[in-house]
Write a structure and sequence with these properties.
Layout (H helix, E strand, L loop, with lengths): L1 H21 L4 H16 L6 H21 L4 H16 L6 H21 L4 H19 L3 H23 L17
Length: about 180
Amino acid sequence: MPLNWAGTQNNLGNALQTLGQRESGTERLEEAVTAYRLALKERTRNRMPLEWATTQNNLGNTLACLGERESGTGRLEEAVTAYRLALEERTRDRVPLNWAMTQNNLGNALRALGERESGTERLEEAVKAYRLALDVFEASKAEYYVDVVSRNLARATKLIRKRRGGEEGSHAEDHQQPTCPE
């Protein structure tokens, strides 16, 4: 029964995240984070590694959404950690499409951090994650995701070029926050 409860908590987190994305406040997103963290108490890595990884990815998505709405970087850092944990079980060999989705999500969180920092290190990490995801989506002929990741990759590489080239001026598109992960 505890595993069913954990699955329900994960699903509750998904519903709360969807509602939270549609609202301007953060209350539902905070509730989603709580639900995912409760689910992870039963959906442990040892007991249910792929479900644990899915919940870590979902937690990362919600933390990234919260991070977009906050001026600090704490939630985005937490999202990066959650995605990296998920990738320990969501491997390319084991679940390639899920791995690629998580790589894209990781890239988005890293890019959001990079947009708030002056250097290019996080942006370069984002580019690496996007390229890894793109390889899988292209090989799988997942055209929708190829398009999404290609746009994310272009945005990150453009900002890297701008920072390395010392271009003057600011373009609004370079500073927009990414949309919440789907």
